[in-house]
Amino acid sequence: MAQDLFAFHGEQQRRRLAPLADRMRPRTLEEFEGQSGILADGRLLRRAIKADRVGNLILHGPPGVGKTTLARIIANHTRAHFSSLNAVLAGVKDLRIEVDAARLRLERHGLRTILFIDEVHRFNSAQQDALLPWVENGTVTLIGATTENPYFEVNKALVSRSRLFRLLPLEPEDLQRLLQRALADGERGYGDRSIVISSDAADHLVDVAGGDARSLLNALELAVESSEPDGEGVIQINLAIAEESIQQRAVLYDKHGDAHYDTISAFIKSLRGSDADAAMFWLARMVEAGENPRFIFRRMLIAAGEDIGLADPQAIVVVEACAAAFERVGLPEGLYPLAQAALYLAGTEKSNSVLGFFDALKTVRAARQQDVPGHLRDANRDGAAFGDGAGYRYPHAYAEHWVEQQYLPSALQGEVFWQPGQLGWEGERRERMAERRAAQLAAAAELAADQPLLLSSGPDRPGVDRWVQRQLGQEGERLQRLRERLWRDIPWTRRDRVLLLGMRSLIWAIDPLRATPEGGVTVLCDNEADRNRLEAQLDLLEPEHRPQLLTDNLDTLSSTQAFDWIGGRLAAADLQKQNWTALLDAINRHSLPTTGLRLLLSRAELGPAGALQQNGGAEELLGPVVAQEQHWLELQQRPEELLANAGWQLSCDDWLEPLTLPGGKELADRWLAEGSPYRQAMGEIKTEVLAELRRTLNGLGDGGLRLPMRHQLIKGNQIKP
Questions:
Q1: DSSP states of 642-659 as a string?
Q2: Is 150:144 a contact under the CB 8 Å cutoff?
Q3: What are the helix (H) ranges across 492-595?
Q4: Which pTM was predicted?
Q5: Largest alpha-carbon pair distance within the chain?
Q6: Is the pLDDT of residue 620 over 60?
Q7: What is the pLDDT of residues 384-413, one digit of tens each?
Q8: Distance CA 28, CA 19 (A)
Q9: How far is CA 684 from CA 344, 643, 667, 675, 709, in A?
């Protein structure tokens, strides 16, 4: 008992003495700052955490972005047992202890175990292999955190069984909120002290922290604890104190990891794209991080042959001479020839004509019993799951071997690091470099939109695939063609959130559900009966993959939930009774400046009596009904004008479909059953008229009823300031 009391006292003491960054760790999703790309309302990870349906996860990102914190939040939300290990300290023996305990919990109590492994990349291959069988059979659910790219540092079998999420550095506004919370929190932060921090000091701390929450809070703690209160007991933190607390932004750079390969890739692509400013930036980043200049020279020699070649035969000579000069003078003066070589390659003409060599190589490869030399094979390191490099525009594919493209980070777009003089080689290129810089700035926004950063990846979803095949088998070819036309050419991303309207059939949800595994689909049903019917069709899907079903309105949604796409198919009944004013008001509240719209409106051009009359099969008795049908059809709302007034920029595509409906009792009941939309719209129909209409529809032969259908595909984008 005494030990328990001492242990409790020790834990309380540890919490009091813990660093500010540890004390301020968020405990709930609501406190968690940043990462809206994967944790915003409606996205898969947030839904899975709240529903306690978190599967195997690997969280990947730089230090201080919330990987361990997110794992702890998951622990607070789960009904499973939560265990944690640090791969730096643990070994196979510790893994076995945790796995044995997890197996006993599962067998005796039916209790799942979530095993969190921090720095999971520090486990060697044997240790990761020891974990694999228990992850595979479900004894433990793995949550791994790593600062390295899991596709390079984590067992491929573990990666294939896990969903990957990339966490990004925090935005300045996220860090500002975290800073203010630390100053205001009386329990864990400095709310019990009188502290005044100037705006300049706060901005400096946020700026130099570079998206790292831990770095920000450590700097704030140093500033507060090292400052004496003034005569009134107030701790004043000005810019000078802030600069002393955090003087230099850390350059995150691992010479054997992602930073090494990604930075040299950005450098070479900047040289190839003739962007001297970006080349200077990436070169400076490598030098500052301690990259070996010999490695940089070697890559520049390759670039001189691959991307410049015979357009400027002196390029390879200049790089070789600069490399020799560097060897003679060393650092720091050797930085002059290093920068000179990079500027020469960025500014000179480009040609890839030497790649004709590879045409000859193809012939060699086709020859019998010829092995491909290993040093000529392309060993791409990046996995396809994150899509890194997608959207890169290859300059050699454009006129003059150049295309306007962003090479600098977005925050530095427009920065000028090299001002060419007016004489000699650089003077000849001065005007052209200025023109290209202007073109780079003009294209920056467009190119950023074309090259989205993927934040997550995961294994296949067999349950979703089975459900899709089942739905496809239940619907006819005609609806499949309409479905394909509705969603054609939409640039889905895996984390899109989609709102579907007019959902009387789940065929319209197939494409969004398949395309947005880390996002989410919300379905707005017209009534409770439709909702119950759709729920019955979703039994094959696992709960975290099912769309969210709402009835009648969007009032139950969180005010912060927004949709990237809004779409669906609306039939005549939907157009007739939909309260578009209320619906559009709700849609606008849950839309983003980039939200896209896809609506397919389908309405009959004629009612049954009108179609019979047009086809020459209607009695005179049906004449008044035809006029009433036309009035009903004219009353069906056309929402495009309302959408335009609500702030949507639209384009419409109309077409007519000649539809033939088989005659018989089913056709008659479709229109004339008690309570049908048609009967409600027609009001009281004389008994003899109703009987004649039913008799005629029942008596139609194989030719059926020819009914023209009008389809309208509305595409749009939200217009917001």
A1: HHHHTTEEEEEEEEEEEE
A2: yes
A3: 510-515, 528-537, 572-577, 580-589
A4: 0.60
A5: 108
A6: yes
A7: 555 556 567 777 877 778 767 776 766 666
A8: 20
A9: 87, 34, 20, 12, 26
